[in-house]
């Protein structure tokens, strides 16, 4: 009887360990998924900066004497465009992060529920075993 109980407990511990390992793996995967967009964003930023520098260089190098009002507007537009371009991926990234966090929470909840179910099952098993044992013993004494 005791051996059986011990075995059950050991099984439970093993299951718990497995679940924890699964959780860790999931977390690592999520981290990787989060890092990838960030790296892409950095690349985008670098490219945009390069483009801006090139544009500025062109503006400096090309001796264009245009009428005074437009260039300022043009410059503003040129400066605003990259900013907008930067904001879009950032927003997308934020959305992605939120979704991933929600997913992670769901997974954690699922794991917890599974653990609870396992524990309940084990408790039921133990109770049944104890009752059975008790009953059996009682029967013997009669």
UniProtKB/TrEMBL annotation:
Domain of life: Eukaryota
Alphabetically ordered keywords of this record: Membrane, Transmembrane, Transmembrane helix
Transmembrane regions listed in the UniProt entry: 35-61, 73-106, 112-131
Protein name listed in UniProt: ABC transmembrane type-1 domain-containing protein
């Amino acid at each position: 009887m005791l051996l059986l109980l011990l075995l059950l407990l050991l099984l439970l511990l093993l299951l718990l360990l497995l679940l924890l390992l699964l959780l860790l793996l999931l977390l690592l995967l999520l981290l990787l998924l989060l890092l990838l967009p960030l790296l892409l964003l950095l690349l985008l930023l670098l490219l945009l900066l390069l483009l801006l520098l090139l544009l500025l260089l062109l503006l400096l190098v090309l001796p264009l004497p245009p009428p005074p009002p437009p260039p300022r507007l043009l410059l503003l537009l040129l400066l605003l465009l990259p900013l907008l371009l930067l904001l879009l991926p950032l927003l997308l990234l934020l959305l992605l992060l939120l979704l991933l966090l929600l997913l992670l929470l769901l997974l954690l909840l699922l794991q917890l529920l599974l653990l609870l179910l396992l524990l309940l099952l084990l408790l039921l098993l133990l109770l049944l075993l104890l009752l059975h044992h008790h009953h059996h013993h009682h029967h013997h004494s009669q």
